[in-house]
Amino acid sequence: MIVIMDNHGQYVHRIWRTLRYLGVDSKVIRNTTPLEEIKALRPKGIIFSGGPDIERTGNCRKILERYDEFNVPILGICLGHQLIAKHFGGKVGRGERAEYSLVEIEIIEKDEIFEGLPERLRVWESHMDEVKELPAGFRLLARSETCPVEAMRHERLPIYGVQFHPEVTHTEKGSEIYRNFARLCGEL
């Protein structure tokens, strides 16, 4: 099962539906769910959803702080991506435009999350806040003209972040990104 931490984002149920469509068992839970309850679910992966406020990410930070107790792949979407970057010492700040729009990203390192995808994708993302500087110990996987860190991965751990929303139909190959993540989790 993949656990989806609900950070009050408008697309959280689309993440669940995308995984369900792929045949992956998943569950949306409140981000305030106690860590012991999350562990009892025995997740094989965790997704931090997008949302409006990095201060309202509940226990997502605690999962990162106590990663060795979970030891599963993590994927941060938009706000989740920013939270991961901030936790590991990266810089997060306002984007150039405070709106949702289509952006073309350049995948500069395929890694497992982008396996089988073209080098350029059009993706749906929010430009309200974004990762401005990659945290130490992370590799840059994708960038765009408007955002320097569209996707990243921890160098040693299976911790990923993407600025965009793969679960939205406007994002090209979005379900493939979730399929690749589910494979990392051993769910496909």
Describe this structure in words.
This protein has 188 residues and is α/β, with parallel strands linked by helices. The chain has a single domain (2-184), classed as Rossmann fold, CATH 3.40.50.880. Helices cover 24% and strands 30% of the residues. The chain is built from 6 helices and 11 strands. The strands form 2 sheets. It has a 9-stranded mixed β-sheet with strand order 2-1-3-4-11-10-9-6-7, with helices on both faces. A two-stranded antiparallel ribbon has the order 5-8. A hairpin with a 4-residue loop joins strand 10 (151-154) and strand 11. The relative contact order is 0.19. The model has no long low-confidence stretch (mean pLDDT 94).
* Major sheet characteristics: 9 strands, mixed
- The CATH architecture assignment turns out to be 3-Layer(aba) Sandwich
Within CATH, the superfamily carries the name Class I glutamine amidotransferase (GATase) domain
N-to-C terminal Cα separation, in Å? 11 Å
What's the helix-strand series? EHEHEHHEHEEEEEEEH
